[in-house]
Every structure is written in structure tokens, then in C-alpha cells.
Amino acid sequence: xxxxxxxxSDGPPxxxxxxxxxxxxxxxxxxGFPLIAPIFFDTSxxxxxxxxxxxxxxxxxxxxxxxxxxxxxxxxxPVASDISSIxxxxxxxxxxxxxxxxxxxxxxxxxxxxxxxIMYISTTGPIPAILQYQxxxxxxxSTIINPLSPFIFSIPATAPTGVVLSLNGDKMFVADQxxxxxxxxxxxxxxxxxxxxxxxxxxxLPGGRVxxxxxxxxxxxxxxxxxxxxxxxxxxxxxxxIAFDLSSTVxxxxxxxxxxxxxNPFGIVFSNIEPLLFFVxxxxxxxxxxxxxxxxxxx
Length: 299
Prior knowledge:
By secondary structure, the protein is mainly beta. It has one helix spanning 20-23, and strands at 2-8, 17-18, 39-42, 50-55, 61-66, 71-76, 91-97, 102-108, 118-124, 129-135, 144-152, 160-165, 171-176, 181-186, 201-204, 211-216, 223-228, 234-240, 250-257, 265-270, 276-281, 286-291. The longest helix is centred in the N-terminal third of the chain and has 4 residues, at 20-23.
């Protein structure tokens, strides 16, 4: 059984947005990296240990996971996809997971009629699972109606740390940091992950990479991006010969070294509005916003 409640922070709005010089050593761009410095949003006043990130469709709402506190934090973003415009404290949704699991990542259903009305949270611990919740208003965690039936992992998952669904909801992809693999599940009833019945297809990434999170280019599903949680501070881009199909030919194309920002990049998401990449840094306790030359393409 899972219990939950809502909270709203009190006190003055946080001053979370910082230049990199205020929080980190100067960022040294790798060859081909955009010259505009990344923006950093400090979550340390609101969260203990951040791991996951996602956006609403209009990108006026950002969600992050505080794993240690078992919270989802919802931030209002006045200027779409611009974390420097955040001024208000977050609304939080706390999950009291009785089996001692910890949340690790968050995503939402896409497309009519489910868009923003089903929230998925990956959890790791004694009973690895993907939780799902129904919302009465899209992308508003204060309107959660009730938890839906979760998806409980059997073998092969040991530590699911990232989750995303295909655009039509017929597939679920999970980054399993525990085994260093990516998992692909068929969802019988789109977006209803409790209807998964078949065993996962398991992809072992080459080079000993350890996936922390996974996401795709939603335009065609042939570009996949993975954060390497192995301590090297890298985000990796792959090509798929068949869209949203890990059993097709998967080729590593390039990597982006962000170790000068954070040595443990974890949750990752792209903007669908602007050529922007966002990732959560475990070490820095915050969110980085990086301007790209082209959408869904690492420099």
C-alpha cells in the first residue's frame, strides 16, 4: 500500500538560479560545445538528493525527484523551458513507500486523452517497481486522484533509475543501473503499465556504460540518449535502426563530457520547444540547462 500527501513550501521565494561561478568551478567546454555557458538551478534548498527530471508539454512546469525525501517537486516556470525564470517555491508530493523503496525518475503520459493525466515514477529498493498515478488536471500533482496498479519488476531489473514511455504508450523503457542495462517492455493497453505481461528485451550497452536515465528524440524515435552513471560524467547519444526498438541495431554516435559541471549526471530530458538539454546532477544537487546548436543532437 502506498500513502501520499501534498505540501507547499512556506517562506520567501528561493533564489536558486546561479551562474556557474557561484556554484562550481569554471566550465571548460569540450570541442564543439556551445559557447553560451549553461544555466544552473540550485535545488539544495528544496531537495536532499535529486535524481529525475521531466517537463509538462508546454514546458511551463518542471518536475524533479528528490530520492532521499521521497518527493516529487513541481516548479512553475513562467518563461517556457527557461529555468532561470523560476521564482516560486515548489509544490511537493510525498510518497510514503512502505516497502522502503526510493523514487528515482518521473515521466508522464503523452497524447490525448492521457496527456499529463498519468504520472509514472520509477522506484528502487527491496521491491523494484514503476508506480503510476492518475491526475484530474494535467501536469498538476496537487490533483492526484489515486494511485493506479504499479508494475512490479521480477528478474531482470534490480535498480530501475530511469523510465520513459513511447509516444503512443505501447512501450516502456527502463534504465536499470543495478545491472547496467536498458529494458524494453511491451504495454498491452497503451499507457497502462499494469498490462505489461511479456518479459523485457534487455540491452547491454557497449563499453561498460551504466545507464542512469534514458530518453528519446520524440520526432522519430531513432535517437536515444543515456546518462552514464558510471562516474565518468558523460551523456551518450545512440542511433536506432528502428524507432523505439532496442532489439534493432543500436549504435553509439557520440558522447558529451559534462564532468566539469557534474561527475554524476543522472536524469535527462530535452526541450520540445527550444534546442535545450536539461540534466540533473547528483553531485551538484541541481538542474543544468544547456543550449544546443540543434534540437536532440549532442555537440
